[in-house]
Amino acid sequence: MSRMRWVVFAAIVIACASPPQRDERVTTIAPNDNGFKDVSVFLVHQCGSLDCHGSRFRSMRVYGSVGLRLAGNTPGDTSSSGREQLSQATPDEIRQSYLSVVGLEPEILSDVTRERGANPERLTLIRKARGAENHKGYNLAPPGSRGDTCLLSFLRGAVDSQTCQDAAELEASPCLSSSDKGSECAGIFRTSPKPSSSM
Amino acid sequence: MKSRALFFAIAFAACADPVQKDAENAVPDDGKRDGPEHHVGYQCTACHTNGGSAPEFSFGGTIFKFRDDTCPLDQRGLAGARVIIYDRDKVRHELFTNSVGNFYVSREEYDPPFPVTVYIEGPNGEHFAGDDGRFVNQMRSHIGRDGGCGFCHKLGSRGDQSWVPEIYFARTENELRNAGLSP
Q: What is the mean pLDDT of residues A131-145?
């Protein structure tokens, strides 16, 4: 093909390419943030450890008492006089967690939200939580579990606060004290605990 | 011949993982030979990881006696402490700290399903409970994916947003003594 023909061909291609439309925008909608506080409790406890979604370097970041904190809310670990007090997530932290979650796949989330939570597995968030897609954290919220119910209630726009709170319990943590779960937890350590007050 | 050497040099450079290299370079040289007592308090899995320069560990870290920023690192560790791990299936596994407080296990020997929870017990079974009866020597969160304690427990981290301090068994020297352990 001669050079002239190439020039003509290129000019046609450029002429046919449509310019971006000024008003071409996608309007996204997200589930209401009412009640997200309870969803956040579940997410922080199940997903928000510092090596997982409590890392600043993850696209889904959740903030809270046992993980990532916003500036000014760090644990009281500078004091040696008392056990560090882990303050609960602040409204700012809950807001940041919300923005992170709804910002993951905004267009798909819009569809799910418009359809009142129908076919939630369209969202990577749900597939990962259910373990339907490769996820290092495994299936922390399999279908029908309390965690799954919590997330779905959020997508439907009516957070099931109690279920979210229940789902926040660390199922992987067998014992918080020796009296938990009958005798099962008494055997973690070899001797009786020394109360902190006597130290 | 020259072009072949250039080809291999480029291929080698392309294969090197800069993130892994940076992680390994972040661990300072402590002057010790490679072995169970080196790099006290640092992230074991910086090197002992898949693709790292040392055999892969599934878990590794250092338990210090108490919070003390004055002693040399290799004198702060708690020897003989028991690290109790419960995996996702609630199967228990125990590891013990060596003379400098380090503990580790290879991925080949122990590769638990995550998440796991961790408790720490002193050499003679010492552990603490708060006024509410709750165990104190327990991680407040579970470990979701990285068994290198130093990944989150950064040496010298104080009041940080993204990291937590090193792991220490007691808060103070007094607390350690009252537990029947010598500093």
A: 89
Structure tokens at B151: 């990944």
Structure tokens at B8: 């291999």
How many helices (H) and strands (E) in chain B?
3, 7
**Dist. CA B70–CA B81, nearest whole Å:** 21
Banded pLDDT at A94 (limits 50, 70, 90): very high
Nearest Cα to A125, choosing from B23, A198, A108?
A: A108
Contact B159 A191 (CB under 8 A): no
In the stretch 24-63 of chain A, residues with CB closer than 8 A to chain B read: 45, 47-56
Q: Are strands B128-129 and B167-170 parallel, antiparallel or unpaired?
A: unpaired
Between A70-74, A102-106, B56-60, B78-82, the lowest mean confidence (pLDDT) is in A70-74
Q: What is the pLDDT of residues B38-61, one digit of tens each?
A: 999 999 999 999 999 999 999 999
SS3 state of residue B169 = strand
Q: Is there a contact between B154 and B162 (Cβ–Cβ < 8 Å)?
A: no
Contact B142 A71 (CB under 8 A): no
Q: Cβ contacts (< 8 Å) between A54 and chain B: which residues? A: 141, 162
